[in-house]
Structure to design on (600 residues):
């Protein structure tokens, strides 16, 4: 049995056709011989009636929805209905009607309405075995929107079971990519239930089902243990890779960052060498996770590799997603104008392709950029757009959505309202480890917000969460910096905050740490260098140094050149030289060697 025989719309149209009167069915039989579209006058001529006497029959067909009015002609509402009428018409009647039509045309009645067959009809009638490849090509080169119309025609057709299954599999991925995960999951399930397709098709159907469930589950995904996915994916390449993608996100959200990163990188490696790469690319999260743990060079290499794959294999419809990832990397580096340009390009590409699932991430990037620029109105607009996509399950899973809205509320409505929302609908920010891992300034922000709102307990929880992640992953120094920033706020530690201001790779987090340091009340005694508390009182007059001089002194003592220091603290080499002269004078040292002895 073909997997699409359960299509309820097809069944409804068949029932409507059977509900017609005998004259109504006769009208359809003659009309079907004329084409998908036809003139009433031509049908009347063949039936030896007038348009007036046919009017009640035409009204009946229109009410039943079998036909629809299209200006000067009538059109079959569904090509499948016309095919069924022709299939049910005896061959002798078909032959006689063709003769009548030829005589009608020869007698000067005028040509019938010509309707150019659609791509779906051509594939269905003349090359059904090529249909899956054509749909896949449309989806990749022009996007899911271009493929959906063809998919709709093919899904309602008959045909051999393997072809139907393969079309169904491709269609499931197209629907998922266009932001309709529920329909994608159901269609993939029907392909799997039929079970008559080639193993490779069933493999890709399992992949679609897993990914669709992952998108739909959203914040609830962490409640499902990763091992629950294993049994369904044995000996299935695409499905196994899809399961790794899902498990990577589950581990990541649960704070198992090493496992999450490993699985994400394995999935990316596997996807690049499989025919299923086209359907797995939108789900790869290795770039996001590499950026989060501070492996920016590896993330850049992965991004360039993905873009080369897109160009080489002409997967143009995926370009919007990777423009979005590039925008997030630029945003983290503080290149706001370049990030905004990339994110805007991504949204344009996604909308042109109909890749609704990806557009929400690009909107989140633009919202984050607007927040950093102080444009709360634009940020609010972008947030409203991606929230609408989320409500329709048309958004890639991400902790960014709640995190960015929380920052907007804190800025616009104050800490108490932000805390109220954090305890309610935005609790995903603290429920998952993802925000703490992906946003270097998040833990400190939550501490700062909680203290300002009078909730010391919540501030301690945020600091403890950052400490736990850092302790569990000493191989990721970026997490140590994140924890130092949060702990510095909680304990009022100038040393911790100064260290965070220098070591943060994210420009926004570094700027926040610097402002947090400046906001601490001045100390009466000697201030500590950044590297460590002095072992003896009076070791050096550190209190004479400014915060910027302290930072420069620490980096110079560690052996960095002026250019390297300038890059780290985002000033010019000339400014670094100026600060160093002040450090040497105030500490009474004459070289970097002496400075290193003072610090260490």
């Amino acid at each position: 049995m073909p997997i699409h025989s359960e299509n309820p719309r097809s069944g409804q149209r068949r029932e409507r056709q059977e509900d017609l009167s005998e004259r109504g069915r006769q009208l359809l039989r003659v009309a079907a011989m004329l084409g998908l579209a036809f003139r009433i006058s031509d049908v009347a001529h063949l039936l030896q009636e007038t348009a007036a006497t046919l009017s009640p029959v035409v009204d009946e067909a229109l009410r039943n929805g079998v036909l629809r009015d299209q200006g000067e002609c009538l059109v079959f509402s569904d090509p499948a209905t016309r095919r069924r009428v022709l299939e049910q018409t005896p061959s002798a009647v078909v032959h006689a009607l063709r003769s009548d039509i030829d005589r009608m045309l020869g007698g000067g009645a005028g040509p019938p309405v010509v309707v150019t067959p659609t791509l779906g009809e051509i594939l269905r009638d003349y090359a059904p075995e090529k249909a899956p490849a054509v749909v896949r090509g449309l989806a990749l080169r022009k996007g899911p929107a271009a493929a959906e119309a063809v998919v709709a025609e093919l899904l309602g057709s008959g045909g051999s079971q393997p072809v139907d299954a393969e079309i169904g599999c491709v269609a499931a991925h197209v629907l998922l990519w266009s932001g309709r995960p529920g329909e994608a999951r159901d269609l993939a399930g029907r392909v799997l239930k039929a079970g008559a397709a080639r193993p490779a098709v069933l493999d890709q159907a399992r992949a679609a089902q897993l990914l669709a469930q992952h998108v739909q589950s959203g914040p609830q995904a962490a409640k499902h243990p990763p091992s629950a996915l294993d049994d369904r994916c044995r000996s299935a390449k695409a499905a196994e890779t899809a399961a790794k993608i899902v498990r990577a996100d589950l581990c990541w959200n649960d704070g198992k960052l090493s496992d999450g990163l490993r699985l994400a990188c394995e999935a990316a490696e596997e996807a690049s060498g499989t025919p299923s790469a086209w359907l797995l690319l939108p789900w790869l999260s290795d770039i996001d996770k590499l950026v989060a743990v501070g492996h920016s060079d590896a993330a850049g290499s992965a991004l360039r590799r993905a873009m080369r794959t897109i160009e080489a294999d002409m997967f143009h419809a995926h370009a919007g997603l990777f423009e979005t990832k590039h925008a997030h990397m630029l945003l983290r580096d503080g290149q706001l104008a370049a990030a905004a340009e990339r994110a805007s390009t991504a949204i344009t590409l996604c909308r042109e392709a109909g890749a609704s699932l990806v557009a929400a991430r690009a909107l989140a990037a633009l919202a984050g950029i607007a927040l950093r620029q102080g444009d709360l109105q634009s940020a609010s607009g972008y947030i409203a757009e991606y929230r609408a996509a989320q409500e329709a399950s048309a958004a890639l899973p991400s902790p960014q959505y709640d995190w960015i809205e929380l920052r907007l509320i804190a800025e616009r409505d104050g800490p108490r309202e932000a805390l109220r929302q954090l305890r309610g609908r935005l609790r995903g920010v603290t429920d998952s480890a993802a925000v703490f891992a992906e946003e270097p300034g998040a833990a400190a922000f939550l501490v700062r917000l909680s203290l300002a709102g009078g909730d010391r307990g919540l501030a301690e929880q945020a600091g403890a969460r950052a400490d736990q992640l850092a302790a569990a992953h000493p191989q990721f120094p970026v997490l140590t910096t994140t924890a130092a920033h949060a702990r510095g706020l909680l304990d009022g530690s100038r040393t911790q905050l100064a260290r965070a201001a220098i070591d943060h790779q994210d420009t926004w987090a570094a700027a926040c740490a610097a402002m947090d340091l400046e906001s601490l009340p001045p100390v009466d005694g000697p201030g500590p260098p950044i590297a460590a508390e002095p072992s003896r009182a009076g070791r050096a007059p550190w209190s004479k140094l400014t915060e910027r001089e302290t930072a420069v002194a620490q980096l110079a003592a560690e052996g960095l050149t002026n250019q390297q220091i300038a890059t780290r603290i985002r000033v010019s080499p000339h400014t670094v030289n100026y600060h160093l002269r002040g450090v040497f004078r105030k500490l009474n040292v004459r070289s970097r060697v002496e400075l290193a002895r003072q610090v260490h």
Q: What stands out?
A: The longest helix spans residues 199-217. The two ends are 78 Å apart (CA to CA). Residues 3-116 form a domain with the Arc Repressor Mutant, subunit A fold (CATH 1.10.10). The first strand starts at residue 37 and ends at 38.
